[in-house]
Amino acid sequence: MNLLICIVDNTAKVNDIIAGWAEIGVTGATVLESHGTVDIAVENVPVFAGFRHLLRGDRQANRLILSVIRDEELLDQAIAVAEETCGDLDQPSTGILFTVPVTRVRGLKPNVG
User: Which parts of the chain have pLDDT scores under 70?
Assistant: First the structure.
């Protein structure tokens, strides 16, 4: 079992990722608004405030998508959906994706992943 964590810079792509995951059988995910360190610095460190538009542009927040996936094959498919939707994650301003092993879960519906 793994926790799939996908941080998406383009918030318009979140619905496409969730829909794509649902199509392959990932039926549970949580979406949170998140802010990177640049966003925090721009808001809280006076020296960066003047560079707000240069550092952050018009972006207000990222989205963090979390899903516990039991099956390795389904996990690979979910990662592929996220990469196809966001583009090459090695490029700037696309997103970050990683997994964390999960050893115990309570409350997860049986039909998820």
Answer: 35-60, 110-113
